[in-house]
Amino acid sequence: MPFRLVEAEDYVRVPPTEFGKPLEDIALSQLKSRYEGKVLREVGYIVAVLNVKVGREGKIVFGDGGTYHRAVFTMLAFMPLDGEVVEGVVENAREMGMLVRIGPILGFINKIHIMDDPNIFFDASTKSYIGERTKRRVSVGDVVRARITGVSFTTPREGTDLLIRVTLTMRSPGLGKLEWVKEKKPAAKKA
Q: Same domain, yes or no, for 132 and 155?
């Protein structure tokens, strides 16, 4: 999985009501609410703000009773990479395709990329896809291996946060429901 630690810098405001409290606690709380669960184009999905170092000298802005302090902090981020092979759990299946949980985000697999079978049928009652020729079935809750075929950043509506959109495929050798992948592995040769 493409998790990584990223060092960043920002300013935090310490309101007068918080004077006397540990600067690191105030800064960590503010940075967590500002960054966790957000997407930054250069960094990816911010899973957690882990630690912070705060400058002891603050700046005062005219008309504001708080102080502003420089903060250097570490974030745990998830950035999916085009072409990477990932494993995830099928969270939802619809006529058009499946949503797969990969790390903290969802990826989408179009119906035609679910398996290498000429005819794939969707069974709405079991939320499953079934291959006509292979009789293979993949359902909600199954663990699958897929390749990322596209990563894009979008803003659904003005004023909303940035989102990561990930498209996946399971049509190549070594990909698919984990039971299928294990079936295809050749038996070990005896010496």
A: yes
Q: Count how many domains the chain has.
A: 2
Instruction: Indicate which CATH number applies to the domain containing 29.
Output: 3.30.1490.120
Quickly list DSSP for 21-84: S-HHHHHHHHHHHHHTT-EETTTEEEEEEEEEEE-SS-EE-TT--SEEEEEEEEEEEE---TT-
Q: What are the CA-CA distances from residue 129 to residues 88, 136, 137 (Å)?
A: 16, 8, 6
User: Are residues 108 and 46 both part of a single domain?
Assistant: no
Co-location of 92 and 152 in the same domain: yes
Q: Global pTM?
A: 0.80
Same-domain check for residues 74 and 105: no
> What is the DSSP code (8-state) at residue 182?
H
Residues 102 and 158 occupy one common structural domain: yes
Distance of alpha carbon 93 from alpha carbon 111, whole angstroms: 9
pLDDT tens digit string along 45-80? 999 999 999 988 878 888 888 889 999 999 999 999
Q: What is the pLDDT of residues 107-141, one digit of tens each?
A: 999 999 999 888 999 999 999 999 999 899 999 99
The identity of residue 188, as a single letter, is: A
* Bridge partners for 129 per DSSP: 122, 138
- Percentages (nearest 5) of helix, strand, coil residues in the chain: 15, 50, 40
Tell me the β-bridge partners of 52. Answer: 73
